[in-house]
Amino acid sequence: MMKKIFILASVALMVAACGKKEKEYDATGTFEATEVTISAKSTGELKLFNVTEGEEVENGAVVGRIDAYQLQLKKDQLEASRGQMSASKRQLASSRKATNSRQLDLEKQVSSISQQIANAQRERQRFAELVRDGAVPRKQLDDINYQIKVLEKQLEATRDQIRSNNASLAEQSEGIGAQMDGIDAQVAGLEAQIQQINDQIANTEIMAPFTGTVLEKYVELGEFVSTGKPVFKMADTQNMFIRAYVTSAQLQQIKVGQKAKVFADYGDGQKKEYDGTVTWISSRSEFTPKTILTDDERADLVYAIKIAIKNDGYVKIGMYGEVKFL
Questions:
Q1: N or C: which end of the chain has fewer CB within 10 A?
Q2: Are the CB atoms for 64 and 46 separated by under 8 Å?
Q3: Model pTM?
Q4: Residues 6 or more apart in contact with residue 326 via CB below 8 angstroms
Q5: Using 50, 70 and 90 to split pLDDT, how confident is the model at 290?
Q6: pLDDT confidence of 191, banded at 50, 70, 90?
Q7: pLDDT tens by residue, 24-48
Q8: Could you write out the three-class secondary structure of 60-105?
């Protein structure tokens, strides 16, 4: 009899112990990822579209391209016009340089003639002394005086030409400068148009905004798309989160930035553990979703939270998971 009582007591203690066993998790939920719908930024025929649902694409990868032939033609025309403008500016610059070069030559002539006059005047002084001494005939001195007069006339004529050229050069330079300014303004306008075309051509490329998985595609190669039309949807499956629900009692012990252990449930008791961080706590309560189990009744109010994890490729959207707060 005593033996039966002892066995019954042992069973009761085991049942009680099992009833008081602490749960391995604090909350449950399902895994989600940030989803983005990529739309066309241009209008035209879809010439390239390498997108397959379920595949992973890299950040910045060009997965589609819209026809940009007409845009490229317009860009070529604008660049040709810019080249013509630049050539005209070079011609004007060359013309002004040539005029300045001619003026410099005249100034060199003035310097040369002035030097010849100085040399002739020294010769005249020497020959004047020789004439006084009767060593040379006076005709040689007269020839030198005549030569000096000729040089002085050449010097004055050259100086007059320089003064005349200076006035003409100033007017010409002002005109050339105005033309060059006008060309610069036109080139700047063409540059702006080319940049605008480049932006439009860049918008014909459809790129992945981040590394992730393609969820759905809405168009096919060869279709005509317009600006703003959705072409495919993708999700950031590298940085995922589990959306779980906690009671108001649990909420007192949870804050944004808090660390947690997250378990991805593969069924049949198979789980994989991840390090998580609480990134969001809802500011309003809601009734417990029917798919979520908590310690309280389903009709009780709970708060949604998000715990972010770094996915290693095994966690899938919609997978069930558990959370243990640290």
A1: N
A2: yes
A3: 0.63
A4: 258, 259, 260, 261
A5: low
A6: very high
A7: 789 999 999 999 999 999 999 999 9
A8: CCEEEEECCHHHHHHHHHHHHHHHHHHHHHHHHHHHHHHHHHHHHH
- Residue whose tokens read 């390498």: 50
Residues 263, 273: contact at Cβ < 8 Å? Answer: yes
CA-CA-CA-CA torsion sign (91, 94, 96, 98): negative
3 CB-side CA count, 13 A: 0
Within the chain, strands assigned E span: 27-39, 44-49, 56-57, 62-66, 205-207, 212-217, 224-225, 230-247, 259-267, 270-281, 286-287, 301-310, 320-325
pLDDT reported for residue 85: 87
What is the enclosing helix (H) or strand (E) of 115?
Answer: helix 69-132
SS3 content of the chain, % helix, strand, coil (to 5): 45, 30, 25
Specify the pLDDT at position 223.
94
Asked if 129 and 141 count as a contact pair (C-beta separation under 8 A), the reply is no
Q: What is the pLDDT of residues 93-121, one digit of tens each?
A: 777 776 677 767 777 777 888 888 888 78
Q: 30 is written with which tokens?
A: 């399902």
